[in-house]
Each structure stands twice: as structure tokens, then as C-alpha cells.
Design a protein that fits this description.
alpha+beta, OB fold (Dihydrolipoamide Acetyltransferase, E2P), five-stranded antiparallel beta sheet, 31% strand
Length: 98
């Protein structure tokens, strides 16, 4: 009765041990924190009750993004482009700059 349980446990340990996840995590932490996409600096110009914020870049381009909890009109934010999104307000991942 214990033999099938041991075989399943050993097989699971083998699959997890040989998976590519540890290799992927090891290469992503190589000491470089630089993102692939360039960062965009912007200013918050409007906040909506729906949880969105309108931001404007120094070039004059406006975006609608998901707002942070401590954002106020006039705050400066830094945003990175997100490659895989389904809705337009998630094309930028923004964080408030201090």
C-alpha cells in the first residue's frame, strides 16, 4: 500500500528538481535591475472615482492608468510600458516618485 505513494512522491520530486524554474529565477537575478523598456516620467493631471488617473508626459502625451492609493493631482510618477495587456489603462505600470 505504501509503494504507490512512495513512487508518486519520488516522481514528483524528480519533476520539480529537473524543472526549468530554478534556472529562470537564477538568470533573472543577475544583479541588473534595468528594465528592457524605457521609463516614462509623467504628472498626474486628473483622478477619477473609477480608480483611474490621467497622466501627462513632458512631451504632452496623455495616458489613462490605474491610480496608486496615495496619488494626488500634481504628483510625479514614473511608468514602464507593459507588453501584454488586454485593456488600454494597463499599458503602463506606474509608480509614484518621491
Amino acid at each position: 500500500m505504501r509503494r504507490p505513494l512512495f513512487v508518486c512522491t519520488a516522481l514528483l520530486a524528480l519533476v520539480v528538481g529537473l524543472s526549468r524554474v530554478p534556472h529562470a529565477l537564477a538568470t533573472s537575478g543577475s544583479g541588473s535591475n534595468a528594465s528592457v523598456s524605457p521609463r516614462v516620467g509623467a504628472t498626474v493631471i486628473a483622478l477619477t472615482p473609477r480608480g483611474l488617473a490621467t497622466i501627462r508626459t513632458p512631451e504632452g502625451t496623455t495616458y489613462e492608468v490605474i491610480k496608486g492609493t496615495t496619488w494626488r493631482v500634481g504628483d510625479t510618477v514614473t511608468c514602464e510600458h507593459v507588453a501584454r495587456t488586454r485593456v488600454p489603462w494597463e499599458t503602463l505600470d506606474c509608480r509614484k516618485t518621491l
